[in-house]
Design brief:
single chain; 242 residues; mainly beta; 16-stranded antiparallel sheet; 3 helices; 56% strand; globular; disordered N terminus
Length: 242
């Protein structure tokens, strides 16, 4: 389960400069609620709240708060209570600042990362990393893909920053396919990341799949990832926004 939080809520995506052209930005305020669980039982919930705001420097940012929590019953086996706060460029979803409060079992971590766009330096966990293009955390990458022009058969070359190193990743788009989740039945496009360096996408395996609705909203309907406890599945329960 911890591998899911590390992949979805930690790390960062780096897209090549020629891939960074976006359509108009999406809704300024939105709430997404997911049921998180395995094939046979529910384990918890995940939420994403996004709203445009002015940061302490007077810059307009898209602020996203992502929470992942296990249910009380599952807490006795492996308790998760994670919170990630993101401040993104509202037009591109590029990462500007990330603060993480991770609590998974006996593992606890609090850290922050930020980017200086003028010097093109990423400051993360006491390290300084030179960057050559836009950087997206995994959630911000989903918001970015929701905004850009995407067609079936497209493959995007990306690099993941996991807090320690850069890794090359390819994301292939397929579909449309129909996904039925608690929020309803949707026609979706499927996004499949694959490793380009011969190593696993996460510590628990290579399988990570994301389905976005095949319409202007590009709602993230379902996310699947192999974890230490089996196939972890997030399904959209409800959403609100303009």
């Amino acid at each position: 389960m911890s591998s899911f939080s590390a992949m979805l809520l930690g790390g960062a995506f780096v897209l090549a400069p020629h891939q960074a052209t976006l359509a108009q930005a999406g809704p300024a305020a939105e709430k997404l609620v997911f049921a998180a669980g395995f094939r046979l039982f529910s384990a918890g919930t995940a939420t994403m709240h996004s709203i445009e705001m002015v940061d302490e420097l007077g810059q307009v940012r898209l602020h996203i708060t992502a929470r992942t929590r296990t249910h009380p019953f599952f807490d006795r086996l492996y308790k998760i209570d994670d919170r990630i706060d993101l401040w993104l460029d509202p037009g591109t979803a590029q990462l500007r600042k990330m603060v993480r409060n991770i609590n998974e079992g006996s593992y606890h971590r609090r850290d922050s990362s930020w980017i200086d766009p003028e010097t093109q330096l990423l400051y993360a966990n006491g390290d300084t990393v030179a960057i050559s293009g836009p950087i997206f955390d995994p959630i911000g990458a989903i918001y970015h893909m929701r905004r850009r022009e995407i067609a079936v058969g497209d493959t995007f070359q990306v690099t993941i920053f996991d807090g320690k190193q850069l890794r090359p990743i390819a994301i292939t788009v397929s579909g449309p396919v129909t996904r039925t989740v608690p929020a309803g039945k949707f026609s979706c496009l499927a996004f499949l990341p694959t490793s380009l360096d011969g190593r696993k996408i996460t510590k628990s395996g290579d399988l990570l799949r994301i389905w976005l609705t095949d319409d202007e909203r590009r709602l993230p309907v379902q996310i699947e990832q192999r974890s230490n406890y089996g196939m972890l599945v997030l399904k959209l329960v409800e959403w609100s926004g303009p």
